Amino acid sequence: GKSTTISRSPRPSSSASCRTSGTTPATTPCTWRGTYLIDARANFFGRYVLCVFLGPLMFMFLGLFVGALERSSDFEPSRQKCVSLLTFMVLFCGLIIPYPELQQWCRPIYKADPFSKLYNAVLIAFWRGIDFDADCADDLVSEGICYNTGAEYLQSLDVHADQYLENVLTFLVPIGLLAAGSVVGLYRVAYY
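-> structure tokens emitted (192 positions)
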């Protein structure tokens, strides 16, 4: 049979080398995400799709809520406010600047940002259960240079692999609050 070995590079977003050993060894460049999207790990696809569904749902309710608060019939002021809020949320969620690299004054904003919980859930869904074909020494793992497992990589980002459900449920709270606020705000606009 054929076996697939994935060589580990220092950064997970960089290209990795996929070698298929069989009758004719070949080296084919591939990306991490492309490799693991076709992986048969249990529950990855469902967990990922759940996160992909929840993000736009929150942004939709945020837009409805901000639109309901606007007294003008013009949509432009509420759109500008939503773009500012979404930019702020994405900037401090850990996507652009990972948590360990954030300045100390930014870390409370990261903790309060609901989008950081969704981003952490996506990271957990993707990296949990992955074992790299690497034999990293403990000192290299602690310095964030090399990882043996996806859990070690998550730990380097201050994300705990066993908190997927907690992150998703924590993200549902602002969705529920924004949905209720949207309904109340739109009802008030429509009937008063």
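DSSP finds eight helices and three strands in the chain.
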